[in-house]
Design a protein that fits this description.
It contains 12 helices and 16 strands. It is of the alpha/beta class. It has a 9-stranded mixed sheet with strand order 1-16-15-2-3-4-5-6-7. The longest helix has 25 residues. The protein is globular and about 50 Å long. The two termini are about 35 Å apart.
Length: about 325
């Protein structure tokens, strides 16, 4: 009887995934195979060549919500990690970084202090991989947050709070612009934060390189999207956007998608829980790349051409990911 209890749900999940994938590939508005390469060898060591920018949207496969983590590797070899997923998937993240030859993270960014964005940093701190932290000036009452703050102190890692209209210089060639949160919004809340407040106080970051730009959105909700539209207008436009709040239904308003006007959206989410948002992007002509379908997504550009590689063109039938060992 026990074997049936475990076997039946796995069959249901498998059928749902196959049905979703069939729908995904039948829809003419998503033609990812035409301009995106499937490549399981994404984790070869990175080398700076003075012209190529790399961005990885990691798929941290875990039974429950695994969170977000993205790596930027500049043409000069400067490494930036935006978020680090949950504690339980930290060995996967560490393995990815090791295989990419990343010995040190020059700039570690926590968009906001929720577990699914800072949990993996605990391991990276213990592995002495972090040179500098950047974060919003937002406290959070949780064991993970407290441990993270303590480890930053134990390892004597310098850190800096970021606010809208500031920037992070990446070596000599690139700069990340900070679009959110504003100091005024933080002062208005005066240290009393709900879950929604913390999400809306996420760092929103924009990186531009040549003809392409990349928007990183943390977990902002649609009301914060509207504030950003009012504040920045066309400055929000980007070639690639990370779906806010993992593609959740709290976010990705039609107004926001139209204002950003992306060619691609990376959705670090369970697409079966985000089909309405995925469809919203489709209707507006955006190519959607959910990491739980395509695995890790690797962007590569010299400022003119943009190459996108994914771990898979379709989900593996056994749902097993070829994760490099730590």
């Amino acid at each position: 009887m026990k074997s049936k209890l475990y076997f039946y749900p796995s069959i249901v999940i498998f059928i749902i995934i196959l049905l979703y994938t069939t729908i995904l590939h039948q829809n003419d508005s998503i033609t990812v195979q035409a301009d995106i390469d499937s490549n399981e060898q994404l984790y070869t060591p990175l080398e700076s060549d003075g012209k190529t920018l790399h961005i990885y949207y990691f798929y941290l496969d875990y039974v429950q919500k695994s969170g977000s983590s993205m790596l930027i590797y500049t043409p000069e070899g400067y490494s930036v990690l935006i978020d680090a997923g949950i504690t339980e998937s930290s060995s996967l993240l560490s393995g990815y970084l090791n295989h990419l030859g990343i010995e040190k993270i020059d700039a570690a960014i926590a968009t906001h202090p929720h577990h699914d964005h800072i949990g993996g940093y605990l391991r990276l701190l213990d592995e002495d991989k972090i040179r500098q932290f950047y974060m919003p000036n937002v406290d959070h009452v949780s064991d993970i947050y407290q441990e993270w703050i303590e480890k930053i102190g134990e390892h004597a890692i310098p850190y800096e709070f970021l606010y809208a209209n500031q920037s992070i210089k990446l070596g000599n060639s690139l700069t990340i612009k900070v679009l959110n949160p504003s100091e005024n919004q933080l002062k208005t809340l005066d240290g009393s934060y709900s879950v929604a407040d913390i999400n809306n106080l996420s760092l929103v970051l924009k990186l531009e390189y040549g003809n392409h730009s990349f928007l990183f959105t943390g977990d902002i909700y649609d009301e914060q999207e509207e504030k950003l539209i009012a504040s920045y207008g066309d400055e929000l436009k980007a070639t690639v956007v990370e779906a806010p709040h993992h593609g959740g239904r709290t976010s990705s308003s039609t107004n926001f998608i139209r204002q950003v006007s992306p060619e691609y959206v990376i959705m670090n989410a369970n697409v079966l829980q985000s089909l309405s948002i995925l469809r919203r992007y489709e209707i507006l002509g955006v190519s959607v790349l959910p990491t739980d379908i395509y695995g890790t997504v690797h962007l590569q550009t010299d400022g003119e051409t943009l190459k996108i590689m994914t771990e898979y063109n379709s989900p593996p039938t056994d749902k097993m990911r070829h994760i490099p060992p730590s």
